[in-house]
Amino acid sequence: MIIHGKDDLENIRKVIGEVDPALVHVFGTESAFGLVATRCGRPAIVQIQGVVNSLLPVYFGGESVWCAVNKAGFFDLLMGGVYFRYLLEKKKAERELEILQNTEYVLGNTDLDREFSGEVNPSRRFFFLPDPMRRPFLDPEPMEKKGNARPVIHTIMHEEYYKGLDLLFRVAALLNEKGVDFEWRIAGLNGNEKMVRIFSKLTLGYPKGKVRFMGRLGGDALAKSLSEADIYVHTSYIENPSNAVCEAQCLGVPVIAAQVGGTPSIIEEGVTGLMYERGNTNELTELIIKLLQDKELASGLALRGRETALIRHDSDAILKELLRIYGEVSGVSFE
């Protein structure tokens, strides 16, 4: 449901009144739906799924707003394209502050969630709860990894400019210049998106024979493709944290991600993964080469990352803790 104004909020309040739940659980601070939590007359928890205010400074990755708008073209501007998407995110960021300022109970899964919500609303109660993972990524036995004809690097992203496609193109080009043979799979994009065209212009392209756009994949297909990878690289300029990183860890794939946002909450540097300075092309390139060459390091990161992730994302433990939180907030037993 898309909530546009006060009438929509009033309709939701009426539904809540008719159902009379013991508790209202709102997912996300980015939509007007979160305003329901402050006006529903029931105990309510708002779950942070991404801190909108943290992505605005890097919304177009390593490019400026006007540079991205210029490459998108005048027609895109007339049609309400990338610039208006940016303005929409700014509006969401303002609303996010309003929601958190008036929310008594907040649920999150990273230090970023805890710290940001505390800065906005010091009196809020914060509960920590990891996200559950999809079943294909929680197999108790990792999929058998077959030898690849050439090293496979994997990234998962959707069409959001802060996801780091510009960085990926630059790193792929640099790896190619250094004579590294690789296949870089990008799940979530088919290669025809506007974002791909814009960043192709801004970065002067990418090695076509080595970067493979796979489109959107279902859980089983994605788990299979990801399990075949030698490295998972998360190029995003901000995350809170990334489920894709967690999925790669669960499958026993060594991960590299930027040291930003909620990522340090799921990666212990040098133990369960490697982190690089956001947007640093040279550092990320060298880390990829390092993992491709140092099989012992890659294997250790994969093993420890998987062990930690499977404990962190244990479905039974997450459900038990969620029901405990529900009971504490509402005063009603959910067990």
Along the chain, the helix and strand elements come as HEEHHHHEHEEHEHEHEHEEHHH
In terms of DSSP E residues, the strand content is: 5-15%
Per CATH, the architecture of the largest domain is: 3-Layer(aba) Sandwich
Shape: globular
What count of structural domains?
A: 2
CATH topology of the largest domain: Rossmann fold
Q: For the record, what CATH class of the largest domain applies?
A: Alpha Beta
| Unreliable residue stretches | none
Summary, kept brief:
By secondary structure, this protein is α/β, with parallel strands linked by helices.
Report on the architecture of this protein.
The structure is a single chain. By secondary structure, this protein is an alpha/beta fold. The chain folds into 2 domains: 6-132 and 315-330, Glycogen Phosphorylase B (Rossmann fold, 3-Layer(aba) Sandwich); 135-312, Glycogen Phosphorylase B (Rossmann fold), CATH 3.40.50.2000. Helices cover 44% and strands 13% of the residues. It has 13 helices and 10 strands. Strands 7-6-5-8-9-10 form a 6-stranded parallel sheet, with helices on both faces. Strand 5 (152-156), helix 7 and strand 6 form a beta-alpha-beta unit. Helix 3 crosses helix 8, helix 7 (165-177) packs across helix 11 and helix 10 (243-250) packs across helix 12 (295-312). The radius of gyration is 21 Å and the shape is globular. The model has no long low-confidence stretch (mean pLDDT 91).
